[in-house]
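# step 3/5: fold
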Amino acid sequence: MFEARVEAGFAAAHRLVHYHGKCERLHGHNYTVRLWVSGETLGEGGMLVDFGALKAVLGEVIAELDHRDLNELAYFEDDPSAERIAAYIFDRVKAARPGLPVSAVDVFETDTSMARYRPARL
């Protein structure tokens, strides 16, 4: 199995409505996102997927989130947790490039706190 990943970042604000603690107040993060692809075979040029293509689609998707109050997006239903942000990015990338072998998305809120979304079956 081959795996490859690209990384990008965005800044956004959010609050967790159904969480009781400091994160229920509006605050922001400089998020880091890692987009993973995986596959059994390599394509032309000996690559799983061109890094440039991965960076382009990830950039398009995170541009939708950059410098936003994530609570204003209906998708998150008032709780834009790192887990839900990872699922959102995964789904948006798959919708934008259906043939892309996306396997997981990691979303870091800080250098030491990360959530990953990976569907049960690929």
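# step 4/5: annotate
The chain has a mean pLDDT of 95.
# step 5/5: archive (pending)
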